[in-house]
Specification:
The chain is about 25% helix and about 20% strand. The chain has nine helices and ten strands. It has a ten-stranded mixed beta sheet, sandwiched between helices. The protein starts with about 35 loop residues before the first helix and ends in a 6-residue tail after the last helix. The chain binds beta-D-galactopyranuronic acid.
Length: about 400
């Protein structure tokens, strides 16, 4: 997996030499105690807010939840399915939450919460799942940006619902497009306009993009989960793949109710170090997906060394909670080595807080997961979430969330 840097001019000055130390504050003060870390943590969140993902606007937009469907004998009797509509603000905006809870366990279930790419109806073949109501990408059976019955189960291979239930875990999922459809429209659709001040027509340069809105939606889903007696509010893992892995990391960083944070192939703007300039670079991501980040982030295209943060600091914001990073060998675009290094460089924060960070020293071989309080694996194959990935996430949850069956 030796790679050439994809950044023009890289090598003249090694941006890695400017990597910020998680345990040194911006002003140079060392972080020596848990209390110091609390201050550094707040500083890092502020830096990611101002320069990378954007700030969540201060306006308060209430969300009320309505249970619109439930079946205690779903999934051949193995699960309880619930479908909940989150009414966002007063203008009819909605986010749909789909929840499966295992029936064969006693007590509230630990669960995984993740956003999906194409609509809740695409995560499994269950015909009772309501079709998405929002704009969806045109994709296998979904034409004209309309969710269609033909796309039911389209992404079922990425969601290990059978095995999750068998191991005593629930699954909660929301379609990312309910929060913000994934294309650049200057933030006229999705939830952004609900937060505009009078006269405002787009987010300010330091205000949130799509990833910020997706992360906000994960926290709103969590608001529901903590109030549902079937879910264990102390054992909710937030998980995401690729662009939605970036959102999961940012949600987990900001919202400490998430007990565990899992990134799958999240790459640039996710778990991978930007300063390595391997695979997708800051310029590449800003050019193709300008709507994911705040506008201030565009200033760092080809200027990674000037970023006041790098992505190991995002992983460090999970501390002392368990955080897991998964890579795929052939997913060079997401820079597996950069994802591994990031997990390793976040680990001193865990050490400071009395936890074991990432075990071992170097990049592990394929299929040999490392599991401290920081976990990492690389598996053979390309970009995607596989059964292997889910099995390791469940192993990691068994280790840290006291097991699926407790
Ligand atoms: C790619 C993008 C990545 C990653 C991926 C995905 O095109 O360059 O940052 O997020 O999409 O979300 O599948």
């Amino acid at each position: 997996m030796t790679q050439e840097s994809t950044r023009p001019g890289a090598g003249l000055l090694d941006p890695m030499a400017t990597l910020p130390d998680p345990l040194i504050c911006l002003g140079g003060a060392p972080v020596r105690t848990a209390e110091d870390w609390g201050q550094r943590r707040a500083e890092i969140i502020d830096l990611f807010s101002a320069h990378v993902y954007g700030r969540t606007p201060p306006a308060s937009v209430p969300v009320t939840f309505e249970l619109v469907e439930s079946d205690a004998a779903a999934w051949q009797g193995r699960a309880t399915r619930k479908q909940i509509v989150g009414h966002i603000g007063a203008a009819g905006h909605q986010m749909d939450l789909l929840l499966y809870l295992p029936n064969h366990r006693s007590g509230p279930a630990p669960l995984f919460l993740g956003l999906n790419f194409y609509g809740n109806h695409t995560v499994c073949d269950d015909p009772a799942v309501r079709l998405a109501h929002s704009w969806t990408p045109d994709h296998a059976g979904q034409g004209g940006n309309r969710p269609a019955a033909e796309s039911r189960g389209l992404s079922a291979g990425s969601w290990a619902i059978d095995e999750l239930l068998a191991r005593g875990y629930g699954l909660a999922t929301v379609y990312c497009g309910d929060l913000d459809p994934d294309y650049d429209d200057g933030f006229q659709n999705g939830i952004h306009p609900l937060f505009y001040a009078p006269g405002q027509t787009r987010p300010h340069a330091d205000e949130w993009g799509a990833i910020g809105a997706w992360a906000w939606g994960l926290s709103r889903a969590m608001d529901y989960l903590v109030a549902d007696a079937g879910c264990d509010p102390q054992r909710v893992a937030v998980m995401g793949h690729s662009r939605l892995g970036k959102a999961a990391l940012w949600a987990g960083a900001q919202d400490e109710r998430f007990a565990m944070i899992i990134s799958n192939d999240s790459g640039c703007g996710g778990a991978a170090l930007s300063r390595r300039c391997m695979g997708e670079t800051v310029r590449a991501i800003n050019e193709r997906f300008p709507h994911w980040f705040c506008r201030n982030f565009a200033a760092y295209s080809d200027r990674e060394a000037d970023l006041p943060v790098d992505q190991h600091l995002l992983l460090a914001l999970a501390a002392p909670r368990p955080v897991y990073v998964a890579s795929a060998e052939d997913d060079a675009w997401a820079d597996p080595e950069g994802e591994h290094l990031s997990a390793r460089l976040a680990s001193p924060v865990y050490g400071l807080l009395g936890q074991r960070g990432l075990p071992g020293e170097g990049m592990p071989p394929a299929n040999q997961p490392l599991m401290g309080r920081v976990g990492y694996h690389v598996r053979p194959g390309g970009h995607g979430v596989t059964a292997y990935d889910w099995q390791r996430f469940m192993d990691f949850a068994d280790l840290h969330l006291a097991g699926g069956f407790s």
